[in-house]
## 1
Amino acid sequence: MRKLMLAVGGSLILVTPLSQADVVGLGASVSYWDSDLSGQAATNNDVVDVENDLNLESDSNANASVYFEHPVPILPNVRLNYTLVQQSGRGELGTSGFVGIPGSVPVQSEFDLDQLDLTLYYEVLDNWANLDLGLTARDLSGKLVVQQIGGGFAVNETKVDAVIPMGYVAARFDLPFTGVSVGAEGNFISFDGDSLRDFNAYGQYEIALLQFRAGYRQMAIDYEDGNDRLDVEIGGPFVSAGVTF
């Protein structure tokens, strides 16, 4: 993880405040993300397919964010974002089994992903075309629990837990219709075999202080923490509602 910190931290000098907000701005939003999970989890050399073997389905997904923008030069704007993904299901392991759980037996599983982002960013463009660049510190916690149903009741837990620096970019383009715009935003890091990507694209409508979005979000996590590794993708449509001041 030190190598990840150096890789992204060294890029800080590339983020310069070319434009700032004219006035103080504050906004908040909540969203629902209808996501599907695919990929693999591994402990040592044992691997399980989270989609085909475990048959995980979404239980609850939530996202909330708040941002603060200001006209003070040099100082970055601030954005906080929280994401929670919870999925569970019943499936059957392949013939090779998984970490003490024999093959071809029924299992019940739970996958939890909890992450909090602190983003510091600058407005590079602020007119009909908007562009923000910055850095994000992501507190990531992911856990997959697989338990045998019946038999010996064997249980295995695969877990990753880290604070990860990521690049941040957001772009939005106002259309020639009052209050309508399209945009995309994302966080990313790739270094020494580990990588994380989190991108979304959306359409937006604003009326008075209210802001509504609908779009598609995809997150890819390929991260190793000790003997445990998650190599998964989470994607699906989302809707959000927010207020801006």
Note: The two ends are 38 Å apart (CA to CA).
## 2
Amino acid sequence: MSAKRYDALIAGAGPAGCAVALALQRLGVETLLADRPLAQPFRIGESATPDVAGLLQRLDMRIDFAGHSPYHGNLALWGSDQPQLDHFLFRGRGHGWHLDRSAFDRMLQQEAMARGVAFLGQSGVDGVAPDEGGWKVQVRGIGEVRARVLVDAGGRRSPLAARLGVARHRLDRLQALACHVETAGDLSGYSLVESSPHGWWYATALPDGRALLALMTDQDLAREQRLDHAGNFLAAWRATRLLAERLPPPLQASSLHAFAAHSGCVARAAGPNWICVGDALMGLDPLTSSGISGALSDALAAAPAIVGMLNGNLNAARHYAQRADDSFRRYLAERRQHYGLETRWTELPFWQRRCPPPLGGSRHAAPRAYQGRLA
């Protein structure tokens, strides 16, 4: 039997992968969406900024946000002894949403299937080899398929790009130590950020009445300070000001989960008959709160590049690579600026690694990650 043929195979069915599938479906591209099982069901990306609704509308999705709760802005204790409120209303943007993330992802997957996208859950890519006009792909659960274009939407590991020998730049060792808290405290409608000597804290209310709490710190610092131990984690939590007031620490912490949260990017955004989107393209510091909106934006930009590949025209892919390069360099400048606002712990390792270098320094120079071309 000959292998099933698709125009595009997308590895990863999170927001980036589903959005690419939906955008390609509108353009008449036959697509297979393959999703690998989650290593753990705990999810860290729980918020959608106000621009997400508009990006979904560009995919012809009319979203019912029932089961999710409004997200009005951010409350921060950063670089000052006084909390600062960034209300989305002040920007004329409306509100975003605190998500039931699993339900949100399922909604996108179901929408893709309803529109005729072939979806294979609990699967993954086990092997890739060049084929005339595309690729031979070993897909867990169905065997060999042929695809003309591969789309890596597999997250920070960039699994397809790695199989193709594409390097990934890693700028830091940031990780999230996260847990659920049974009460949301005084967080309703807002996300909270508070800087601390060894990193920064993030907390947000979830639609089910609980809260998500995460300490963002570097892996080596977490080991040295033993912050992944419940007692030390709770002690650091109690030492906060705004967080401890808005979300009082319990007597015992629930299980901690560690997640990669480092900044990084693939060495090339795309190549002959392959392309990266979402976190597989570039992983940004969670401080940006741009994970979902960035994934959807990447998908909308990637769709015409993929169609161009199918038609033998690489100009759109070159534009996509240049867009990625510009976005990552802009992100690095904004990251440097935001971390530089916090000057209370500049002698400590976490902040030394992120504070702007002296004038003329190059410690945070952008890697040559994207060249605006395919070769």
Note: Residues 170 and 264 are 4 Å apart (CA to CA).
## 3
Amino acid sequence: MNVAIMGAGLSGLSCAIVLERYGIEPTIFEDRSQVGDRFVTGEIDMEILHRPVMDMLRFFSKEHGIYLQPVANLAKLVVFSENRRCDFQGHIGFSATRGRHHQSWEAQLARQVRAPIRFHSKHTYQDLLQEFTHVVLATGDSEYAARLKNFRIDFRVAMKGATIRGRFDPQIVCAWLDNRIAPKGYAYLIPYSEEEACCAIAYPEPPVNQPADLPGNPPAHLQAEASNGLTDKSPRPIDVFWSRFLARYARDIGEPHDIHHTWDISGYPIGRCYYPRIGNTYFVGNCFGAVMPFLGFGQYYAILTGVHAAYDLLGMGDYAEKAAQYLTCYEESLVIRRAMEHVSNRGFDRLLWFLDGSVGNWLFDTPRDVLGTAAQVMRPFISLL
């Protein structure tokens, strides 16, 4: 067996770690100069998203021999709507650094892999098919899956973020549900340390977001021109939302004086594969559809797809069977995402009022599959919207 892994991200490196433990040394190809994305970001893994597993890091170390150190164990999640604030306390989950940072989860996994990573790779998927018996596509996006007609795009996302320097408590993260700053999406603040944090906005792009739906937007014709690059004078919608977010951040947290390493992404596809494996090609990570539509994070499922693709290659499991479970979680998350797109700012205010206190804290403490249950309840109503 001669295995190529295309992509040195969470899923590809996790796949390599498991293969090496059982005596198979894969060849890892990465088109960038180092592991990690183009910029440094913060992400959180909330335990509520993958019940019944209550501790993701313990699960990976005990069950699969994959070891990760978080930035912090999260003790509080502060959520702001337009007019309310709700504090959730307990074991929320973990925060992590992602991207080009020596303690990013990609960098930590790379240090657990023995095989050299071939950086600056120009190999295509077709090249690897000619040279290797099996190919694991872990490219971090859906491009190859889409080319093979094996990817369904449900919506596209725009994001803008930056690193902010100041004073932070790494055990506390913040989120905003406010359609004026992230329409039908959210904004967040995740500390890297006591001195630095990542803040960002993320929201679905048109056709989900129509200009008329967004209160306080620039005129629709300016939005269209800015989105299509037809004028240099009109601000891009994402820049308008970002400016509003910084003003809201100053009101809720304090003036963000030291902002650097600003980045933005547009048109990032969120979707899922139809088939986790075609012939001797495995689709893992974001190439499979590990990004959960509800909040956009997907570290847990990205790692699991790499792990279980490796077990399938070793003859120790059935990747299609495991992937079917992950696709069910994806579809449940998509139902909640669709419901979120219909919630007004007044609705977010009411939601936080309901969740404030014992109800909200119970959601984070219970081992029950809260999101799966919520999706089943919401599904009939979503079809009517």
Note: The longest strand covers residues 258-273.
## 4
Amino acid sequence: MTACKKDKGTPPNYAKADDVLAAHAIKQQSFTGNADAGFTITGEKGTKVTFAPNAFVDGAGNVVSGTVTVTLKEVLSKKDVLFSGVMTESNGQLLESGGEILVKAQKDGAELQVNPKLQDKGAQVEIPKVMNNGDMGLFIQERRQQGGGASGGNQQESPYTWVPAPYYPFGNGPNSYTFSLPSFSWVNCDRFYSDPNPKTTITALPAFQDNNQVSDLQVMLVFKNIATVITLPFDYTSQKFQSYQNSLPIGLQADLIILGKDSDGFIQFGTQSITIGANMHIDAPVHKATQAEVDAFLATI
């Protein structure tokens, strides 16, 4: 006797969430230099930071000498923003980014600061115009304004946001943005996004295809035609992921992206192309995904 049996094929090689995040994490680059003489570092993506002689001080304000260690993170694409955790919004207002960087300095394990006596001459920065070529200004991170969330502070959101730093000179050259580094912290070449269309609020909920519990959920929008990536914080009042109130221009196109980690450690992943509509709600399918599926989508943004 003989029988036929359907070949189910090789099961998908689903990706672990930690592996996906590690593969796309923003690399921290490390450099050393002589604080007395000054030196220049150049990042892998083209960011250049030039430190003047005696540009570093310790926690007590004393000028530091000898060898110092400088680290650099470059966020120069929408994909970089997506995995940096530092989104392009200012107290709920959309920003267009020309690039973000994080510069830190240490000596013997102790954090250093930019020498304030050098004013705006301590550390000069050039960021290549690979993410955007529009006219930008310098933004720095500060504590979010009270009540800046979508429902009067009932959102699970980052406590920090971007605010303009108009007191620092900023240059829009043909190939790079140039400015003085105000401090060893995140800085951003940014501008407020202007759109004449009416603004609205949208909500979203993941629709899971698996029964496993999912944690570390992130719901984000990557906009199609502008260098803008935002998160939709979870709003405890509506029990939905929700944009900031009346912050999104109707008609703007974006990719909704959901990332999470199930109880087996696999990534839960979903994407959906949307056009912002008035008071729209999105039920977004989310499923276990392979590394190749995630990478293929990321190559399109």
Note: The chain is about 10% helix and 45% strand.
